[in-house]
Design a protein that fits this description.
Helix content is 79%, strand content 0%. The chain is mainly α. Mean pLDDT is 80; it is low at 14-18. It is globular, with a radius of gyration of 21 Å. It has one domain (17-331). The relative contact order is 0.17. It has 14 helices and no strands.
């Protein structure tokens, strides 16, 4: 009975994202000709695909360097493999990549899962700030999507405030820990479980007190965004009959990042493609052409992260099934 109840909760957790993806796929299939789509995909050359693969790999290299600078105690190789393993599991279970990264870091080093989680929280917060900034700086050129402006501003301000709060907590971590230790609460659960874990989270924010390391982290995270924008710009030029302003790719990348933040099916199928089609429609691109490049970019990313992710699991002696069980256990504990 308990097993059935757990499966039911998992299904309900997935349901909103699956429905959003199905709706996106339905509208894409309704307005896009399969033949036009195939013709657009066939127009890409082997060199085009090679460039797309290379830019994907470079983006993951930059992303790994950014995270490595946020979390002391892991090597670049470990960071690179774990980042790809995170993307691999996102392709299997929505929003599971962060959990996998915390589990793997804890298993490969003396870093606690909560320290790893705090570094990932900083990384993701920076991503939202960058995505919102990209969108807001290019929005004045695009009047058709002004309806999303309040959302972008809200996300930008919220996560900017979050980063500031995290920096303040990191700078005063010793005082915060002392306050917790001196707490007169009678709750054994708080003293033995919550407070020590919160202390580990503060330890994971230590890099924020080092301006040079934090600046390096921001630099590499920005470089990963530069790779993604370049990748998208290259993709748009493959379907464009004329010159493409760079800000088109910047705007589309911002919209895409905000779009795939929505709940979705594994690997963001449907939502990723639908968001890109909607963004490029602003510039007059046909649905078939936009979908073709969206599918190529999305599929290439999935293939690259799957290859490196599976290689990482093999090197680290991990298995997909074991990690999936640990993810389910973790999510079950959180929901309980």
């Amino acid at each position: 009975m308990t097993s059935n109840s757990t499966k039911g909760k998992n299904a309900l957790r997935w349901l909103p994202g699956v429905l959003i993806s199905l709706v996106a796929i339905y509208f894409l299939s309704k307005y896009i000709s399969l033949q036009d789509l195939l013709n657009a995909v066939k127009s890409l050359t082997i060199v085009d695909i090679a460039v797309i693969v290379l830019l994907n790999i470079l983006s993951f290299v930059a992303r790994s360097m950014g995270w490595k600078n946020l979390l002391d105690g892991i090597s670049f190789k470990q960071a690179f493999l774990i980042v790809n393993e995170g993307y691999l599991f996102n392709n299997l279970i929505p929003r599971s990549g962060e959990i996998v990264r915390t589990l793997l870091v804890g298993g490969l080093s003396e870093i606690s899962a909560f320290q790893a989680a705090s570094s990932i929280l900083v990384e993701r917060s920076l991503d939202v700030i960058v995505a919102a900034a990209l969108f807001l700086t290019t929005l004045p050129f695009v009047v058709e999507m002004n309806w999303i402006k309040p959302i972008a501003w809200a996300l930008f301000i919220l996560f900017l405030v979050m980063i500031v709060v995290l920096i303040l907590l990191a700078r005063h971590s010793d005082k915060v820990k002392q306050r917790l230790a001196d707490s007169k609460t009678k709750s054994a659960f708080l003293k033995e479980k919550v407070f020590p874990k919160f202390g580990s989270i503060l330890d994971g924010l230590a890099t924020l007190t080092n301006p040079l390391k934090f600046a390096r982290s921001i630099f590499w995270i920005l470089m990963s965004w530069v790779c993604w924008i370049t990748l998208l710009y290259f993709g748009i030029t493959r379907i464009s009959p004329g010159p493409v302003p760079l800000w088109w790719a910047i705007f589309t990348q911002g919209v895409l990042a905000l779009g795939i933040a929505l709940p979705s099916a594994p690997a963001s199928f449907g939502v990723y493609e639908g968001t890109m089609v909607a963004a490029l429609a602003v510039f007059g691109y046909s649905e078939s052409a936009s979908l073709s490049i969206a599918l190529v970019l999305h599929f290439t990313q999935i293939v690259v992260t799957t290859i490196f992710g599976i290689y990482g699991l093999m090197v680290q002696g991990q298995s997909i099934s074991a990690l999936l069980n640990r993810i389910r256990t973790r999510k079950g504990q959180e929901s309980g």
